[in-house]
Amino acid sequence: MLPFKTLIVPDKKSAIPVYLQIANKFVTLISEGTLKPGSALPSTREMASLLQLHRKTIVAAYEELFVQDWIETIPRKGVLVSQHLPDIKPRIFKANKKRSAYGLATGFSLPDNILNSSFRINASGHRLIINDGFPDIRIAPVDLLVKEYRRLCHRPAVQRLAIYGEQAGSMNLRKELVRFLADTRGIDCQPSNMLMSRGAQMSLFIAAGIILRPGATVIVAEPNYHLADQIFQQYGAKLVKVPVDHNGIDVDMIEKICKKKKPDLLYIIPHHHHPTTVTLGGDRRMKLLQLIRQYNLAVIEDDYDYDFHYSSSPILPLASADHGGNVIYIGSLTKTLSPSMRFGYMIAAENFINEAIRLRRMINIRGDDLMEEALATLFHDGSMQRHLKKSVKLYHQRRDYLCALLKKELGDVVSFEVPQGGMAIWVKFNKKYSLPAISRKASQKGLYISDGSAYNIGSVNQNAIRMGF
Amino acid sequence: MLPFKTLIVPDKKSAIPVYLQIANKFVTLISEGTLKPGSALPSTREMASLLQLHRKTIVAAYEELFVQDWIETIPRKGVLVSQHLPDIKPRIFKANKKRSAYGLATGFSLPDNILNSSFRINASGHRLIINDGFPDIRIAPVDLLVKEYRRLCHRPAVQRLAIYGEQAGSMNLRKELVRFLADTRGIDCQPSNMLMSRGAQMSLFIAAGIILRPGATVIVAEPNYHLADQIFQQYGAKLVKVPVDHNGIDVDMIEKICKKKKPDLLYIIPHHHHPTTVTLGGDRRMKLLQLIRQYNLAVIEDDYDYDFHYSSSPILPLASADHGGNVIYIGSLTKTLSPSMRFGYMIAAENFINEAIRLRRMINIRGDDLMEEALATLFHDGSMQRHLKKSVKLYHQRRDYLCALLKKELGDVVSFEVPQGGMAIWVKFNKKYSLPAISRKASQKGLYISDGSAYNIGSVNQNAIRMGF
Fold first, then answer.
1. Which residue is closest to A360 within chain B, CA to CA?
2. Quick one: pLDDT band at residue B331, thresholds 50, 70, 90?
């Protein structure tokens, strides 16, 4: 073993955290060849005792090296220096002399009406990332959920549950959600009005798939959540764009459109609209509800982060009012848990849910029934509700902190309105500053910041990005 | 507390298992009103000591009661008699005087080209179920997987992993699968040829969505996996049905069709075809490959349970041969784990995978990256491979056992061929016996058996069902 104690001497007064100092030292040792590929590192315990540091510091340092691909964990061997080092462009699979059939492009040609999407965060190579507004998994009750999941797996009834789950998703979870939605946003529905899905996105894809046929028209906001627009176009629908101001979508214009020709669908995000974060004003809401009833307008209300609002009197969703069965309400639990745990739901009239169940089966035969059952338990015993209360408080503080910081540090560069909810601020940059250029320069310094192109899906250059907190 | 020791006296010599006797006694006590709704039951430990039985017996009895909805578990209160008893038709949610907007049907009308599906197992009320061939979750390494998942959740890198996963699914898992597929079925591909999805079904939905436009033609087997036919029709495609005999699909007929007009897609299940379980013969396979190259035919090869074959020399998938990049190969890990854990993958040329990634994001923004990482570890340390070996042996024995039993007990009623793989036997009933009648009668005795209608999607009455082992 190398004399790590003399090789690694962290400076506790440095601005660089100790764990990063250690990780950086290892990177040097590996890239200089002092530590050879495949050689074993001391365990975190040993290393902690060698360097007289807390073991958590060593764990964090190893994690950093692992994330950067410098080391790997091999069962029963421990932590080794990677065989494939990041500076040597890894070629993990030997190229075959004879080219594989999958080395070619398809022999048949592809239809060309699939849309491109440039919305992609490339995390690698960036130390810091300003994202679109993702939940913080560290505060989420993921561990409780997984514990409950394991407990369920040990029950004798697991086989039956795992094979013959309910088609619309766990009945226990739907019952819990019916109560939760009544309590938190006044929605009056039954479990038979609800379909569980893999995140709100899938609910949206399914709902749109039932309503839209090629040539259909959809009213959307401009700008709009880009993946919603893509879905509608994928189904061959035509978008009718209606502007958004600080009070939400322009409802008068929706009325004008309806008067001319009733559209097949209205897609709306009344709370913390994506990307602009504005909330639909109360008077517009009333007027819109009247239009929905009058025209029997099919509406998808995407309310993906209602649970995170910071004003004392939030406006209730359209779904909670008298809408004649026309509103399909879509919600998400992913924001309350972790981006990797996708739980979404759709609420609609029963005839609609029955169609949705059929389409869902074609796309995804079933959800993870056991995980849904585990989640139902967390609602039943109040863990989810408690977590939500805590995290709303936390995100509220973070919002205020980020707003203050933006005003102080970038007051002459950006403008924004304080969002009433959600996990992001819609930050407009002064036209003098070009976002693509900022994004490029930031990237060179290890900071990922969107170049704003994902939000420019219309003809307008927003020169704005969402900043998650 | 009731004097359970005198109330419950199990008869150890009875043919009814002790745990069921106990459960039944409880049902009597509850339905007679001796045990009131909401009243607490002794813990399993107490009860075991009271009745001087093993605790596992009591756990099983409580499970039975739980499954039947007689009892419920309330955190920090223990096990209680349900508030909503199964004999009183439960009306969990009070009907509102004023009818909820979701109590209506939608005000707008729905397009009517969504297909119906009668394929549904109603487990409730059935003690025994003959299913389509589902894996046995009790032997699967689900617990190992969940343990690994929890371990990942505790790592400092979890936040990054959970937010910024790879678009095509975990890179580690795809690397492991590339090795696994090369080892087990000679497929030569790279991680960039692979997209992870929620089960094989979603891969099928995505692949078809890229290839098919309204009016397209698809060659399918008759009979065929019903949810595949539904997907193609959902996309507005026309089915061209080609018969299946004991050597698989009729390849000569496929050639004739191609000569007339090249179809847009061929959908094929060469191994253990669903529902008939036949495997495509070697000579037909060669001829089909030649057709695929000659016509640049787009092919979806659905190979959902290749891993479960019991003959010594299985035929390799089309995807492993020279197909000019035209074969889209779809596989599943769900059969190796649990029906509730949906892991599927698609292998195709890179240009196709890139389109598939775009469509996948519209449907399901991402998979469960953490669970995929956990699964990669199980492949990396060999747990999955070991489990697979063990379970293939077990299903092999079960197949032989069920075949012998069918021959012995129902030899004059049914006919079948021993399947080379998979988890089900395609059992044809003598025309004298009508499956819907058998199904009805069996149901009255607590046995679920399909009425065969799900397999009659063509014009032919198969009078046959799949029996899973």
1. B202
2. very high
- Residues of chain A positioned with their CB less than 8 A from the CB of B157: 63, 66-67
**Helices A199-211 and A350-363: angle between axes, nearest 10 degrees:** 110
Q: What angle in degrees, to the nearest 10, is found between the helix axes of B199-211 and B226-234?
A: 30
Q: What share of chain A is helix, strand, coil (3-state, %, to 5)?
A: 45, 15, 45
Pick the residue with more confidence: A120 or B184? B184
Query: Using CB atoms, which residue from A66, A162, A347 is nearest to B137?
Result: A162
In the predicted structure, residue B144 carries a pLDDT above the cut 80: yes
Structure tokens at A20: 């990063």
Q: Which residue in A has a C-alpha nearest to residue B344's C-alpha?
A: A364
Q: What is the CA radius of gyration of chain A?
A: 26
Residues of A in contact with B342 (CB under 8 A): 364-366, 368
Render pLDDT for A312-351 as a digit per residue (tens, 0 to 9): 667 889 999 999 999 999 999 988 888 888 899 999 999 9
Q: Of A67, A159, A199, which is closest to B138 when you measure between CB atoms?
A: A159
Chain B residues near residue A324 by CB distance under 8 angstroms:
101, 104, 107
- Which ipTM was obtained for this model? 0.78
Cα diameter, chain A: 81
Q: How far apart (Å, rounded) are the C-alpha atoms in residues A287 and A297?
A: 13
Residue type, B380: H
From chain A, pick out residues whose CB is under 8 angstroms from the CB of B324. Answer: 101, 104, 107
Say which residues have a Cβ less than 8 Å from residue B416's Cβ, sequence separation at least 6.
B403, B406, B425, B426, B427, B428
Q: How many CA within 13 A on the CB side of residue A335?
A: 24
Q: Any idea which residue has 């049905």 for tokens?
A: B241
Q: Whose CA is closest to B268, among B306, B236, B234?
A: B306
Q: Are A339 and B163 an interchain contact pair (Cβ–Cβ within 8 Å)?
A: yes
| Residue-averaged pLDDT of chain B | 87
CA A468 to chain centre: 11
How many CB atoms within 10 Å of residue B161? Answer: 23
Distance CA B189, CA B191 (A): 7
Q: Map residue B42 onto helix, strand or coil.
A: coil
Q: Which residue has the tokens 């601005």?
A: A15
d(CA A432, nearest CA chain B) in Å:
31
pTM tops 0.90, yes or no: no
Asked if A412 and A325 count as a contact pair (C-beta separation under 8 A), the reply is: no
**Burial letters B430-465, b for 16+ CB under 10 A, else e:** eeeeebeebbeebeeeeebbbbbbbbbbbeeebbbb
Which pLDDT score, from 0 to 100, does residue A121 have?
66
> Which residue is it, tokens 């607590």?
B446
Least confident span in A242-251, A272-281, A321-330, B113-122 = B113-122
Q: What is the DSSP letter of A192?
A: G
Euclidean distance between CA atoms A339 and A331, whole angstroms: 14
Which one is predicted more confidently, A145 or B86?
A145
Structure token pair of residue A286: 């009333």
C-alpha to C-alpha distance for B281 and A166, rounded to whole angstroms: 38
Q: Is the pLDDT of residue B94 over 70?
A: no
Could you write out the DSSP letters of every residue in B134-203? ---GGGSTHHHHHHHHHHHHTSTTHHHHHHS--TTS-HHHHHHHHHHHHHHH-----GGGEEEESHHHHH
3-class state of residue A157 by DSSP = coil
| SS3 call for A465 | strand
Q: Which two tokens stand for residue B147?
A: 């343990």
Sign of the CA dihedral running A290, A291, A293, A297: negative
- The pLDDT, as a whole number, for residue A132 is 86
Amino acid type, B254: I
State how far residue B270 is from chain A, nearest Cα, in angstroms: 19
Residue keyed to tokens 């902190």: A401
Name the residue of chain A whose CA is nearest to B95's CA. Answer: A190
